[in-house]
Structure formats: structure tokens, C-alpha cells
Fold these 4 entries.
Entry 1:
Amino acid sequence: MATKKEEREFEKERKKAIKERYARMKKEGLEKYFTPDQIRYNRNRRIIGAVWPVFRALILFGLGFVIMYPLLFMLSTAFRPNEQMNDPSIVWLPKSFTLDNIKQTAQVMKFDTFSPSILSNTIVNTIVLNVVASVLQVVTCSITGYGFARFKFKGRNVLFAIVILMIIVPPQITTIPLYLQFAYFKLFGIIPIYSGATGPDGNPELVSLINSGLTMYLPALFANGIKAGLFIYIFRQFFRGLPKELEDAAYLDGCGPFETYVKIMIPNAKTSFLTVFLFSIVWYWNDFYVSSSFFTENNTVALMLKNLDAALQQQLFDGQTVSIRQIIVWLESGCLLSITPLLIMYTFLQKYFVEGVERSGLTGM
């Protein structure tokens, strides 16, 4: 067996021989060694090999600029004094930096409010809603996806078609039925639950879940939350890719289906759980359509950002109507405050997130 020194010497001699052969072929003429078609193919290949890296760099630079431009503009504007927005000599770097925009926007968006309860703080309230709904959704969607991946039962294809429809059908179609269900809540849509109060017509009033976190928790508990169809699909694809022998070994050891899921499948699906949890957090964090449909008195980051324009005019400008240009620094500060928690979370979890995307079947969609 050759030593490492001998292998290095052999590799050096091999490269030298190849280099000498190329030099000899070039000196004697390629026509002696290749057909015209081969010469044309090699020439085109060299041209493509020289042009493609430049073209690829231009594409990546263009895409990077399109993606980074809003973030760079947001950072440049959020820390800029308002009076410098009308200075034509300032494009990207302001003459001075200030944190007043951030502080004032945080007050308007109730990021620094903890009275009368800690849930009055927009960040805390959003985190509580998001984390609880996301955890419930991850658990129920994983169980549902595992069932579709491993069990054969009547109507499985029909039910999975309904799951695909959950991905395709926009939430606007189901908003009104859901609102009526939550406003006049009946258990399983059949059993009425009364609040104990009497309505104007003298009849007892049904319990209303509007302005309650249950409007987020209940759909998530039954694998019907925001983007639940996609999460079920991700778990189904991942569990289908695991070896069937893992479950067979667990059944031989006396484990039932649920115990096999808990002890065998969940430990092997950690990255998929983390991926779905991060996706769920981000979508719940950015959601304002569902939140604005079921909440009128609940503050979330997305709702506060959606109404930031009107709130700024009311609190900072005493109700006066001002143009977007006049309040752009506060609007960009609000955007920065709203995405900062997500950026921090992704910074620490990006390694596991990318690994989970690669293993969960998303890349093959």
C-alpha cells in the first residue's frame, strides 16, 4: 500500500503528464486528435464556462439587491431624524442617528406597556398567542401527517384531497362561517353553550369567543390553523421517508401505534418539528387578516403595524392628516420593531431550519 508521500508524488507526476500532453496536442494541432464536432463542442464548452460565472454573479447580485433593498432602506430611515428626509444631499447614510423614532414608535405600538396586565404589551401578547397556537398546531398536524403516511383506512385519499384543498382554498372563503361559529359558539356546531346573560329579546345569549385567544387555539387544536394543510403535507412526506423497519421493531417490542409515534417517530423527526414550528410562528406572527376578523380589542404585532399610520396621526400629530412622506421614519421604525424578534430567532435556529427543510420533503415540492 502506497504511503501518503508516494501518493502525492504520483499525483504530481500525473498532473505533469497531463499538462505535457495538452501542450503537445496544442502544438501539433487539435485536428490530429479530435473530430470537427468535438473541437466545436470543446470550444463552446470553454465559452460557456467563461461566461456562466459572470452571468450567475449578475443574477445573484440582482436578486440580492431586490431582497436587501427594502431592509437597507428600512435601516437607513428608521434611525434618521425626520427633518433629514427632505434633505436632497442624503441618500443612504444620514448626517446623524437618533433612537427617538424607535422609542416613539414603540410607545404607539404598545411595546413598552405592561398595564393593566402583562398581556397589554403587544410583544408579550403576540408571543403568547403565537407560541400556544404553534405548539398545538405542530402536535395535531404531526399526528395527522403520521396517520396519512403510515395507516391505510377507508376514505384516506378523500381526506388527503381535503388537506390539499386546505392549501389551495384562501382563508377569505371560510372567514364568515368561522366568525358566525365563534360569535355564537356551539360545541361541535350542535350543542349550544349559554353565557348566562340575557339578550335584548329576552332569550339567553350564546357564548361568544370573539376577542378571545380561543379563536386561534381551537382551529390549531384540530389541525385547521393557519397553513395547517401545508404542515400536514410536510409531516406526511417526512414520515413516509422513514424506514418501515423502525415501526416493525417497535411493534415487536410491544409498542402500540401511539407509543411508537411518541418513542420512535418523534425523536427521528426533530428537524421537521422545528421547521414546522418556525413556519407556524412566522405565519401567525405576520397574520393580520385572521386576527382582524376575530379580534377588535386584541393587540398583535401585525394588527398594530397595519394600523400604525392612523395611530401615529392620532397620537403624534393630534389627529391631523399627514402624508406618508412626513411619517415615513416612524413607519419604517415600526417595520424594524416587528421583524427584529423573527430575525433574532432565525439567527440562532437557521442551521436546524435549513436541515429540516432538506429532510422534510419541501425541496421536492
Entry 2:
Amino acid sequence: MISKIFATGDVAIDWFEVISEPRVGPDSDDRENWDRYTNICRIPAPGGTLMLAEMIRNATKQEVTGPRLVAKLEEITPEQAIHSEVSLDRIDKTNNYTIVQNRGYSGPPIGIQQLCLKSNDFIKYPSDASGAELIVIDDTGNGFRNSVDLFPNNISEKAIVIYKVHSPLMRGALWRWMKDKSASHIDPTKIIVVINIDDIRRVSEVSIRSGLSWESTACDFIFQIRRQSRLAELADCSNLVVTIDTDGAILYEGGEQGSCTLLYDAKRLEGGFRRETSAKIMGMTQGFTALLASSLSDHGIEGLKEGVKQGLAGMRVLQQGGYEVSPTRVSLANISFEKVDGSFVYHEVKIPMRYDLNNPDPGYWQILDQKTENIAENIAENYLRTGKDKTLDSVPEIQFGKKLKTIDRMEIESYSAIQRLIREYLDNMKPEHPLCIAVFGAPGSGKSFTVDEIEK
């Protein structure tokens, strides 16, 4: 059990614009005139590492050494610290709120924000990490990564370090410091780098398919990270965790003999849960990191894989709850993480490390084949007799519409591609041409049924 946790990194002030109905009707005579109009209330909340430290405290039930406010949030200006601005409105038929508009960011007109100067007098960063067994660094690319005076010191070589990093990747003094053991004194085998797959996709010349099948995303990732020179520094990481929305993750252990594990929701593809959930929030990756930290706190580095699964489930729990709003405070409804109880199941499979010069997946890998190797006939017999087989629980089974389900990778990819075309067309408010899809097949082969289900 780890007893001392240290957190540092980028800090922001999150401003929530809460929209509510007029307090009285237009004909009321007993209230002020402004009460007859839509009410807008602006409430600040600690963001970035301030939020992350609170989440880690909730997840681990331990004290966390982290950045400390020495001024009131509403007194900190955009010239001093970055402000994020969002608008909230009620989730249908609930008392909780969701983000309905990201209004953007405000910060200093030029140069570094005062927050990143050690001499600032409104937020104090911890510096002495001596004795800390778990260190969490949140690098969102907003100044901390180049503020060398704020980097932690006196780090033990035994410490586990979670380094959560955002685009642009592999940039700044912090990345170089983390990679240089003589400067940071961090054991590279104890560093866990956490990134989102979309940040890898933003790297020039990198191509990783999204939401077609788990196999295609995983094989593209292996192909790119092993062959793309722009990702060479990521490929050297001993422990690289790549989150894929809330639906899965890739755990990559680098080096010449590196291995790669895919953790995935067998019932959804990338982005599936997000499209099913009405709430939109900030702080998803902080929630993931907090629950990862909790698992590492309990089990050490051996708790990494389970921590990733818990982190993915935690993001979903946060998203489901949305925000709770009072006249003076906005907070995530499920920030205590008490509802992360195994209700979301993630399976795992080793990703084959095979590819050629031009093809990331020359053998057309299927999780179905890997999970059912040598026992396919027994599984088929069980399914015909009972309508189920436990082995198939870990095989991707994607449902389109209300009745169409498939476990075949080729069908999943074909249907997903068509569904994406339809979704993109519907999202386009002013399409230039109608969307035309031709479906060919023998009479009675299920053409109409399939098209109807995909459209749903």
C-alpha cells in the first residue's frame, strides 16, 4: 500500500455558465424586473491538477500533496491563469447538468501565464517529492512543461510516476527531463505515460483508423508505433497507456521485445458509449488518472492493467452523472467514484506484433479466431443448444439497430463504415447532394432488414 502521493502539473480555472428559467412569470409584480428573464449564473471551479488532486484523494482515500490555492478563484484573472469557459443546462428530466457549449479559453494576450512562474502569489506548487511513492504529473501543454522551476525534485528511484500528457506530444522541457534519468532520477521502468489516441492521430503522417473494429485500431497502432519515426520516443516507453475514448485502451510495453495488450468493451466500438450518454463533462482524463493511481496505490506497478480498466469505468461513471449545481458551486455528481463497482466490463487480448512494409494487418487478425482457437466447434454446439457460450462474452459483438448483431470482423467494419457515412451526412446541416447507398444481394438474403437496422 502506497501511503504518500504527490501531484503537480498544469492548472486552470473552469468557469461554468449555468442557464436556468426565469424565476417568475412575465406578469408577476412582486419581483425585480430581471427575474422575468432567463437567469445566467457564472461559477468558477478549480481545474487541471487542482481537480486531479481532489479526484485522487476521493479515489484513494489518502492525502495528496498538490498545488494549493492562496487566492480566491474569482480573483484570479486570465492574465494570471488560463480560464476555460463552458455553458451548462439541465440533462433531460433530471436535476443534473451537462455541457451544452464549449465557449473556449482565455489567457494572457502574449507570453507565459503568471501561474507558471514560481513567484506567483495565488497558486503554490509543491516541489519536494521526497518520500513520495506515487507521483502524478498532469501535462496539458499549457505552460507547465516548460516551467523548469516547478518540476518536482528529490524523487526516489522507487517511486512510480504517472505522466499524463496531451498534444503536442514529445515536446517541451518536461518530456526531455522525464526521459533523462540523470536529470529526473526516475527509474524509466516505473514511468507510466498516459495519452489519448486522438493525440497520437494528430501527429503528422500518423494514420490510425477509428471506430471500424477493435482489430483495425489495434493493428494500425502497432504498425505506426513500430515503424513511424515520429513516434520513436513513445515506442521506447516502458509503460504506455493509450486511452480510446471510454471504450478501450492499449497497454504498450516498449523496447525491442515489447508487447501490447488491447483492453476493450466487447459490446461497443470507439465512441459507442459517448453516443449513448446524454451528459458531456470536463475532467474525464483526470478521472481516469485518479482511478489508475488508486490501483497503483493498492497494488504497485502490478496494478497497472486493472487500474486502466478501473479508469475507463470511472470515466463512464463521471459522464453518466454530469454536474451538480448549487448557487455557489459546480461539481461532478459522481466525483466520489462510489459507483465504479464492476458494472462496466472490459476484456483483454494480446495484439499480434506482425506487419509488413505496407500492411499493418497482413494476416487479417480477428479476436474471434484468437479467442476460439481449437474450440470453435464446441462453442458452436453450445450456442446452438443453449443460445450462449461463455467464451463469446469476450468476443466483440456489435449491435446495429435493435435486432442486427454480428461477431464477424468484416461485417462489423462494413456496417460501421456505412453507419458512419449516414451519421456524417445527417450531421451536415447543408449537404450539397443526397446520400445514395446501393445494396446488392440475392432475394431473401436480408438486404432490407440490414439497411433498416443500420439506419436506426
Entry 3:
Amino acid sequence: MENSTPVTKILFLASNPTSACLRLDEEMREIDEGLKRSRYRERFEIYQRWAVRTRDIRRAMLEIMPQIVHFSGHGQGGENSNEKGLIFEDEAGQPRLVDGDALAGLFGLFSGRIEFVLLNSCYSKAQATAIAKQVPHVIGMQKAVGDQAAIGFAIGVYDALGAGRSVEDAFCFGCNGIQLMGISEYLPPTLVKRNAAGEVEIHEAKEFCSAHRSTQSELEKTPSLDGEVAVAPDLTSQSKSIDNGDLPCFSQKSHSIQPSQVLIYRGDNSGQIGQSLGNLTQRQSIGQGAATSSLTTSQILEIVAQVEILLMNSAMLNPAKQKALGFLEATKGEVESEQPDKSYAAKNLNRIVQKLRETKDIGSDGKPLEEDIVTLLGRLEPWLGGAFHLLGL
């Protein structure tokens, strides 16, 4: 007897026309392996397209006719950017920015077919909002998102979908997936969907998942594909885990900042793709603009990046090194926040110093590594202000 179970087709689109070493292949592998292990694995088929150009998107959608479209790569936007959109490749393999209206127009040609779009790139909230006029559910990122956070989010989303959960549940599982990794970036994802009246609703992660969980607890639960109750994870906790880091990769190892070293984020809001550390002080931050002190966000990130390189190239043994990098990543998250918790940042930096004092590592110059890093951290006093004493230097 022929199996009549409907199959959901997923189209995975990857584009990385910059020097940043995004781990898009790891993201695809994790999604694929998760679905293969899932309870309803026979209900999903996943199709991959790499180094996609705009024409490739159209052709793939016409060929495959997917219900889910997943974009993985770079986005550009933020308050300080004049240009916003997703970054694809042109015919020469160079970056090409595609704005939300153009994407919405394309998805409009498949109206009624596509059920869910995931834009796993920085600053993709605007594009998600535009596409949501044509697609019932769209997820985008409201600010910069690190590579590891983006992967963790995708794993949570597809693990939930593979278990028969709704898109709303999957969104919350994805956010919780970032949270469980100990990364402080669980706020970037945004769910945009159309309500019964056809109006576009924008839902931020924490508020939506808290309300979604409460609704399921108090009212009739939303059934999953097999009639079981779908309960979203709890994102209401205010605690911040700092045991693990969202580690960027660098093009070369050095104790000095090199122009070819790139901060690994899935986007850029300076209007220039592939922001290098060598000239961070000449450009706006990839986060949410300049800090409200005598140091700009770009300058603070440059200091953090120098500390990160020293830690990554040190002889410090794991798990001490990973914990120190995790503390630094938590600090970076506060630097990029619109309302940074500077006391929290200072306490994380203090934990790095304590780790260095415990391990007594020696730097390449023959001096204790602690001295080099303490010197760098001392430059953060204008930004930390009254919280600087918490560094314990």
C-alpha cells in the first residue's frame, strides 16, 4: 500500500561571499542529522543549494517547490546602516545585497505554497517582516548573531519540527537552544507571522516564548502532529550562563591584530562586508552603534578581540581556556547590547583574570599572560565607568 503521509520539503540556501569563515556546512550537517534522528523523519526531505546567486534561489524554488525555505549566511542592517538586506553572490562571486521588498516579491510568486521561512543571518528582521506579507511564518534576527549561536538556534528549531511541534514551538526551542549553550545571544531571533485577519505580527523571543508557554499551560494545549501536547521551553529565566563561548574563527593566528582577521558574525551594519579588525576603529560597530562613553563600540570590540587572540593562542589547557573564552564572549554580548550590563561584563572579565592567575600561563614575550591581558583590560575603564573596580585589577 502506498504511503500517503505528506512530505515537507526544506530548501537550504547557503551564501558566504566574504572572507568570514562561517560554518554553514556544520549548520547544514546538524540540521540533516537531527531530522534523520527525529520521530517524524519520513515526513521531511531537505535540499541543499550552495554559493547561491539570486537566480539560483528562483530556480531552486521552482524546481523543488518547498514548504520551508532556510537562508544561512550574511545579512546587513542595523540602525547605522543605510542599506539593509541579505547578502548573496553575483555572477563573479562577489557580494550582492538583496533587500526585503525584492525577497517579498519573489516569495509572493509562491504564495500559498511556502509555509515557513528562516533567515539565519544578522539584521534579517526587516526582511522577515517584508516576507511575512506573503508567508505565514518567518523568523529573522533583530541584531548581530554569532556563528555558533546561529547554528544552535537552527538545531533547536529543526529538532522541534522533527518531533512534530508547531513553528511557534520550534521558534522557542531554537531560542532555548542558544540559551542552553551558555551564549548570551538568545534575544536576536524574532518571529513574524500573520494572524487570522491577515495582519503581520512581530514577536520578540523572550516575551513571546514566555506568553506562549503560559498559554499552553492554562488553556487547551496546541496539539502536535500526532495529537500530543506541544509545550515550549521556558525562556523566563533572568540568569546568564557563562560557562561556554560562541567562538569566532580567525584566518591566521597572531598576537597582533592583522587586517585579514575577521570578526565572525553573520552580518555587517557598517555598509561594508567582511569587517576586519585592522580598521575597526575607522568604522561603525557591527552591533548597535557607538557606546555612550569616550570609547566607541568598535574600539571596545577591538580590545576584546585582542584579548581573545591572546587567549586562543595561549598554552592554557582546556577546559580553563574554553571557560575564559566563554566569559569573554558573555562580555562581548554586553558590549553589543543596546542596554549593556556593565557590572555583568566586568565580573566576567574578572573571572578571566582569576583563571589566568590560577594557570600562571606565560605569553610569547616571556611575561605572564595575565600582564598582557590586564594591560588591555585597563583600557576599558572609560566604558566600564563605575563598574571598573569589579575587574579586581
Entry 4:
Amino acid sequence: MPRVDANRYSFRGKGLHLSVLLAVAVLLGGGTAAWHISEQSETFTYYVRNYDEVRDKTNGFSLEQVAHAEPVRIAFVGDLMLDRGIRQIAGRLGYEVFLAGIAEIAQEVDVVVGNLEGPITTHASKSIYTDSEDGQDHFTFTFAPEVATHLASAGVSVVSLANNHALDFGAEGLVQTRAHLRDAGIGFFGDPHEPAYHIHMVEREDMTVALVGYNQFGSPHETETREAIARARADSDWVIVMPHWGEEYTTEITDTQYRLARDFIEAGADVVMGAHPHVIQRSERYQDGVVYYSLGNAVFDQWFSADVSCGLAVLVTLDPKQGVVFEERFFWSTSRGVSVVAQCPEQV
């Protein structure tokens, strides 16, 4: 399982395990870099840069802002696919069973962000009741209109549309998706057709966080994403990129992922949170940024191995006073898709 190199609900007391806590903390004096590993908990802290460097990187937080700003907590989850087998089972059990893990995590945070692996439309499903022998229909997704409401009820606040399924029902399906998300109060970013929707701003009184999407298999492409990061860097305090990239079903990252992660951080991103491989991939620190190459599945009808049944949620706390803190939670999807927040079997 990954380890970092260099809207609300506490799980403590429930027997659930905080796997890793990475605190990318700010030294108010001095710039010494060092790891601190606690002997009594699975916690390690990295002091990245001194206050002046953070202030420069975050558009000049004033001392008064730092004194009064409240931290923002954002949870990132991986692929959300609610068609095919998920839609079939939801017809009997409802969508809540698939979103239970996300709803639990949402109790701890202000914002939940995930990758929406398909459009939300009124079109009939092509993939329901199919298998891999049925050809392209098995991989053509659309989610029922009520899915947007269920996502919002589970606490999902913002979704990325930067993926290889956003246009499964064409431009008209994308237009419907935007409308259904707006009606449910869910923001979106990484839109493959509208540059105005490449970025979503999470705004608080004292802080702005920019979310930027990238799709290796279409649009937004590399150049668009770098330009979006530059715009976001100028207009926000933190920039987080959610790329859709890599190879499916492998825990090994590709050369393209490795290169782009560095490109995005050098362009101004603070954090990179990847999706698409359907399995969890490693995470690492690069310069002043942190990269999670793949969060795996959050909701998906893939139960053929432990790797695809285990997903990662990363809770990111952005705090001008303390820096950035990363906490990991693991989703375990049972053989019938019920999602729980718990250690995956190979971790126990």
C-alpha cells in the first residue's frame, strides 16, 4: 500500500486505523528540512519550507491572515462509476450502500472531491446486464439522473470530468451532466469542452483552493493543464491537480505519470491526486509538492481482485499556520459492492 516518501466525523474510538499522517508543516523560523518519525504512532512529519517561502508561494498571506485563517479540510477519492453492475444492484439495494464509505469520510471534512467516471444523463444504460464479451457497450457508461442527488447526499462536493468516460454520450451527455450536477449543488472541473470549467475554486473567507483537471486520454491535455495551473497559481492560495492517467490494473507508475507529476508541480501545483488505474499506486514528495499517483476505486463494479476492491481516500488539511497535512483512509468494497471504511484484507 502507498506510503509518502520523503462536509465532518472522527473515526477515532471506532476501531478504525489512521494509516499514515504526513504533515507538511511550516517552520516559522529557519528552513531546515528533516523527517520526524514518532515511535508511538504511524506519523511522520516533513518540514518543507520556512514561513517566508510559504507566504511567497501562497500569494502573500499576511501575518494577520495567518493568525485568523481557519484550515480547510478536503477529502480526495478515486473513481466513481455508478452504471453497469452498480446500477443493477442499486435497483434492489439503493445507491447508499455504495456511497456509505464516502458519506462516513465526509463527516470529517469540508469538501469531498472525486473522479466522476461517466456522464449523468437521461439516456438508457448500455452497460447494465453486460459482460466483457458484449464489446464496447460494456465500457460505455451513463449514470441515472438521481445519482447526482445521491452523491450530494453522501457529501460529494466537487467532481472531476477530466477522464476517458466523460464523453461516452457525446457533447449532449456532457451538457446534461453539468446540468444535473448544478441542480444537485455539486461543482465540477476538468471539463473536456469548456476551458471556463477547467478549474474549480473552493473559496473560504481567508483562503482559496484551486482544483485543476487533466486527462491523458483526451482534453484537458498537457498544455491546457499547465496553462490552467498557471492561472490558478495567480488566483489562489493552493493548487491541487487531479490527473486521469497511467495504465489500468497495475500498481507500477508509467514514465508519463512520473514526468507529468513533476511538470505539474514545477508549473505551480502543490498537490497531485491521480486516478484511472483502478488500483492504488505509490505516493511521493517532489520538491515542495506531494504526489499520489492513483487513489484506486471509490465506487466501481470491479471485485475480481483485492487490488481493485481497495480504494484510498486522502484527507488534506490546508492550514496557513501549520502547512499541509495528509491523512489516509482505506475503502474496502465487498463482493456485492458495499463500501466500508476499513483496512483492506492485505493490510490486516
